[in-house]
């Protein structure tokens, strides 16, 4: 891999390799863009087969956070970190404290959080070495479990998508098919149930399905059946790449709005559902409640203030649809433009000069 060519491809700012022989730490921190502020993104721990695979993943994830944070209206940039290792057996206090020292050494350019393979307990260990970490235990001023807040944001975004599709954001009487009923989706189902929506659910975990059936009167269907059920809204809340060549012909919903990441297998699938007239709420815009919530910790966490910001996902989804109409593009492309246009505006305003020609700030 030509690393500098990869960095140049999407204008990455920094790639940091972290190694600690005593603890076995092998980690990579990627800062993609800090135009809007310090980079914030979680630390993923995964048994990557090769170092190149880890680099490829952290580059992709960091750039994704730039777009997610920008579209959410946050004053933070995009970054991510990966630790190479098996989270089931390779973790140790020494490892996470060593990693925390590397984060501290960046002086606030990168702020970390939980991700796949890491937990609140891991963030607490990192916090022993640096303040540049979010998602720690509530005892340290954290926001706690982000799932309910993420779910609330998805609910708000779903209402915005319904308004475009049906002329009203009232979801009472609407049939919503929810794929995956984990922590986020369970809380989403609670909001939908309280509004009077009818739920159809599936999950590979039977306990999750039974809980939704018991608590919300949901109808349970098989994992492969969820795509073809008669419904108004399809809500993917489990695996990525779920909108693909096999599933698109089965869909009967007029709206796709869910919590899962990377819902489109390929960009062409976003084009395809657009041509079919399906209203798609782009995943990284609608599921931004979690990062909005932890970003509030940087100001000293206030739940009421955080939830108010999460409510704004409704307006962000409407902005995406407005750009899609303005530019005659699918909504997934419009989401990128929402983020890119905001970054461009801020970059221009920050590269300002005094009348006497002296540079005030120039990145």
Tell me which oligomeric state these chains represent: single chain
* Estimated structural class: alpha/beta
- What does the overall shape look like? globular
Count all strands and give the number: 14
Give the ordered list of helices and strands: HEEEEHEHEHHEHEHEEEHEHHHHHEE
Give a quick account of the main beta sheet: strands, pairing sense, barrel closure: 6 strands, mixed
- Which spans have pLDDT < 50 for at least 5 consecutive residues? 353-363
Whole-Å distance between the termini?
Answer: 28 Å
Q: pLDDT average, as an integer?
A: 94
- Name the beta content range: 15-25%
Radius of gyration, in Å, reads 21 Å
Q: Helical element count?
A: 13
Helix content: 40-55%
Task: Give an overview of the whole structure.
The chain is of the alpha/beta class. Helix content is 43%, strand content 16%. It has 13 helices and 14 strands. The strands form three sheets. Strands 1, 2, 3, 4, 5 and 6 form a six-stranded mixed sheet that branches. The protein has a six-stranded parallel sheet with strand order 9-8-7-10-11-12, sandwiched between helices. A two-stranded antiparallel ribbon has the order 13-14. Strand 13 and strand 14 form a beta hairpin. The chain is globular.
Brief rundown of the structure:
This protein is an alpha/beta fold and 363 residues long. The protein contains 13 helices and 14 strands.
Layout of SSEs?
Blueprint: H1 3-9, E1 14-20, E2 25-33, E3 39-40, E4 43-46, H2 51-71, E5 77-84, H3 93-105, E6 110-111, H4 120-127, H5 147-166, E7 175-179, H6 183-195, E8 198-202, H7 206-216, E9 219-220, E10 233-236, E11 255-256, H8 267-275, E12 279-280, H9 283-286, H10 289-295, H11 303-311, H12 313-327, H13 331-350, E13 352-353, E14 359-361
Parallel strand pairs: 3-5, 3-6, 4-5, 7-8, 7-10, 8-9, 10-11, 11-12
Antiparallel strand pairs: 1-2, 2-5, 13-14
Helix pairs in contact: 2-13, 3-4, 5-6, 5-10, 5-12, 6-7, 10-11, 12-13
């Amino acid at each position: 891999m030509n690393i500098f060519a990869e960095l140049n491809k999407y204008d990455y700012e920094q790639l940091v390799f972290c190694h600690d022989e005593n603890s076995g730490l092998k980690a990579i921190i990627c800062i993609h863009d800090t135009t809007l502020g310090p980079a914030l993104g979680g630390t993923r721990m995964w048994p990557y087969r090769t170092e190149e695979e880890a680099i490829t993943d952290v580059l992709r994830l960091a750039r994704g956070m730039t777009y997610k944070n920008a579209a959410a209206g946050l004053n933070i940039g995009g970054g991510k970190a990966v630790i190479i290792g098996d989270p089931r057996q390779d973790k140790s206090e020494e490892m996470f404290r060593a990693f925390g020292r590397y984060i501290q050494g960046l002086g606030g350019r990168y702020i970390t959080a939980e991700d796949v393979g890491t937990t609140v307990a891991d963030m607490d260990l990192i916090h022993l070495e640096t303040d540049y970490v979010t998602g720690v235990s509530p005892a340290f001023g954290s926001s706690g479990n982000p799932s309910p807040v993420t779910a609330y944001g998805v609910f708000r975004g779903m209402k915005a998508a319904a308004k475009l599709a049906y002329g009203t954001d009232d979801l009472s009487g609407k049939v919503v098919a929810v794929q995956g009923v984990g922590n986020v989706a369970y809380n989403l189902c609670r909001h939908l149930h309280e509004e009077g929506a009818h739920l159809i659910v599936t999950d590979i975990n039977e306990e999750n399905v039974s809980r939704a059936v018991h608590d919300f009167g949901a109808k349970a269907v098989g994992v492969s059946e969820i795509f073809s059920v008669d419904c108004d809204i399809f809500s993917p809340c489990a695996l990525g790449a779920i909108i693909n060549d096999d599933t698109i012909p089965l869909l009967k919903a007029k709206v796709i709005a869910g919590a899962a990441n990377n819902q489109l297998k390929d960009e062409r699938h976003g084009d395809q559902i657009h041509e079919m007239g399906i209203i798609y709420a782009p995943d990284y815009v609608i599921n931004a409640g979690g990062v909005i919530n932890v970003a509030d910790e940087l100001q000293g966490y206030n739940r009421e203030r955080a939830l108010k910001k999460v409510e704004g996902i409704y307006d962000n989804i409407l902005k995406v649809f407005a750009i899609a109409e303005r530019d005659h593009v699918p909504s997934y492309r419009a989401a990128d433009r929402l983020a890119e246009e905001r970054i461009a505006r801020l970059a221009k305003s920050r590269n300002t000069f005094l009348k006497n020609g002296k540079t005030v700030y120039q990145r």
